[in-house]
Amino acid sequence: MTNEPQEKTTGASPLSAEASTPARLYGALGDGKDHFKVDQTNAAALDEILPGMRLIVPDNRACLRRMVATAADLGIRQYIDLGSGLPDQPPNLHEVAQRTVKDARFIYVDNDPMVCTHGRALLQGGGVTMIEADARDIDALYRTYELLSVIETGRPVCVVLGAILHFFTDDEVKQVMEALDDFLAPGSLLLVTHATSDQPHYQPEQVQAARLAYEEQTGARLYLRSVQQIADLVLPGCVPLRPGLVTTAAWHPDYEYGPAQIPPAPYFMAVAAQVRHDVENRQYFLLDAARKAEQ
C-alpha cells in the first residue's frame, strides 16, 4: 500500500480519498506508513481539537507491548489479537511474545479485507496468522478451522482487546465478554485498552468535539466511557492484575518494553485481567464442527 490512493471510491472504503478508516487513521495518529494524505489531514485536525491526540497510538502500542510481555512472562503460549489492525509497527505483538516464548502462537483478527490482505503479506515467520473475522462474533470466530487449527481451547489464551471495545455498544461489549468467558480456559488473560470520557486535562466540550470529528472522518461510531463504565463492562468475572484499571501510561511504565521516550497520553485506560472459571474442553467438538463447515 502506498501513501497515495491509486483510485477513488466512495464512502469510507480502504482506498477512499474522501474519508479515513479507523485502521488508517490509527496509523496516521502514530508512526504507521500504510495510510493516505487524507488520514494525515484528519489526524492533524483531531490533534488541533484535542492537543496531544498524536500521542495516543504510540502510548497505546507501548502499553500493549508491555502487557503481552507480561503475559509471556507468565508462560502463556497462545494469543489472539481481536480487531488488530495492521501489524506494521515493529516490534509487533507476536514478536514481543516470541522473544520470551519462542514457540508462541499468535492470531491477528480484523474485519477489514484490505487490512487482512496486507497484514498477511507483512507477517513472516512461524506460528503467526491473520484471520478475517468480526470481533463482535466470538462464537463464529471460535468455530473457524483457521483458529482451531492453531489454538488449543483447553489451555490458557491471552486475548488482546486493544482500542476496539469503544467501537462497540454496551450490549455488544457484554456479548463479547460473555462469549469469551464461555470459551477461555482458566488462567487465560484479557488485555484491554479503551478510550475514556474521563479527561481531567480537557473540557468536556473538547472531548465531545473530538469524538464527533472522528465519527465524521471515519463513519465509525465511537463510544467513550467513564472509567467506572469500562470496569462494569469488562471486569465482572475477572481478576485484574496489578495495578488494576489505570491509564495506559501508568500500566507498569518501567517494564522492559516501557516507552521511556513517549510522553503519556491521558485518553486510554488499560487493564489486564485473569479469567477464572470452569470451562468444558470443547477443542475436539469445535474442531470437528469447523472441519464439517469447511466441507
Automatic annotation (TrEMBL):
A biological process from GO: methylation
Keyword Methyltransferase part of the UniProt annotation: yes
Enzyme class: transferase
Swiss-Prot/TrEMBL keywords: Methyltransferase, Transferase
EC number: 2.1.1.-
GO MF, one annotated term: methyltransferase activity
Top-level lineage group: Bacteria
Pfam families: Methyltransf_19 (PF04672)
Protein name: SAM-dependent methyltransferase
Taxonomic source organism: Nonomuraea ferruginea
